[in-house]
Amino acid sequence: MKSLLCLLTILLSGLAACAGPQPVPEAGTPTAAAFEARCGSCHALPHPARHRAEEWPHLLALMERRMAERGLAPLSDGERQRLLDYLQRHAR
Ligand code: HEC
After folding, report:
1. Which of 27, 47, 58, 88 has the most CB atoms within 10 Å of its CB?
2. What is the distance in A from the centroid of ligand 1 to the CA of 56?
3. How far is CA 79 from the centre of its chain?
4. What are 13-28's pLDDT values in tens digits?
5. Ligand 1 within 6 A of 66 CB?
6. Minimal CA–CA distance to 59: which of 33, 73, 43, 71?
């Protein structure tokens, strides 16, 4: 019953949180490293599957504003595109 609830939770929320922290998608690649470096400094690393692909552009723009407010280096065009592709590739 418990595992059934867990499965339901996964299906309903898209958060596969039942097995504990999820590994970063494409772990070990330069893109995953950039994701960890750029997206884990202010809050816990958000799993890309937290949001749908069409939600990520807006969220990423919002995060870039937060980075500017904190005086962090802005994303380069290449970095932004790589991160957006990555987030959307693994989106819900
Ligand atoms: C400069 C600090 C900072 C950095 C760096 C940052 N965030 Fe955020 N993030 C925030 C703040 C602050 C919030 C809370 C909502 C708000 O005020 O915009 C937030 C909220 C979020 C949320 C919405 C809540 C949630 O957990 O679903 C997501 C998703 C997110 N960030 C993803 C990212 C991603 C992806 C990156 C890397 C591109 C990133 N963040 C980098 C500061 C940051």
Report:
1. 47
2. 11
3. 14
4. 444 445 556 789 999 9
5. yes
6. 43
Residue at token pair 């599957």: 49
The pTM (predicted TM-score) of the whole model is: 0.82
89 Cα–ligand 1 center, Å: 18
Is any atom of ligand 1 closer than 6 Å to the C-beta of 41?
A: yes
Q: What angle do CA 5, 43, 53 make, to 5 degrees?
A: 65
Q: Is the pLDDT of residue 87 over 50?
A: yes
The Cα–Cα gap between 44 and 87 comes to: 15
Q: What's the gap in Å between 59 CA and the centre of ligand 1?
A: 8
- Residue found under tokens 């962090």: 72
- For the cut 90, the answer to whether the pLDDT of residue 74 exceeds it is yes
CA angle 34, 38, 44 (to 5 degrees): 115
Radius of gyration for the chain, computed over Cα atoms and rounded to the nearest angstrom? 15
Token pair, residue 31, equals 């893109």
Q: Whose CA is nearest to atom 1 of ligand 1?
A: 67
